[in-house]
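Entry 14. Ran structure prediction on the chain below.
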Amino acid sequence: MQCSALRKGGHVVIKGRPCKIIDMSTSKTGKHGHAKVHLIATDIFTGKKLEDISPSTHNMDVPNVSRNEYQLVNIDDGFLNLMNSDGVSKDDVKLPEGDLGTGISKDFDDGKDLLVTIISAMGEEQAITYKEAPKGS
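Output, structure tokens:
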């Protein structure tokens, strides 16, 4: 995708990492130069801030980011045992570290039905949020 076509809130690949654009600015052309686009973005998995400057005519890679909700079946050795709405199980997503991970395991131990949202891009997957499943589903 061309640099000039990127938008704030969109996704882009910077230094081989899928990122969400949080700010972008365009500088005017020089006497003989090209307009430059200055991108500031955060890595969607680590939250690290990355910057990139490139000519607006250059093409940038855009990651294919998808979000899916899975029902939490079990937590096994630090991995989430998940099931999608079709009943297909998935058990290769790690329990996230920090408050999110402790919140998931605490609520699961309390016997709550949880829906975990998994974001995936460029062969990486991570749990980003969770909520209690609605009753009667």
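The chain has a mean pLDDT of 85. Will compare against last week's run tomorrow.
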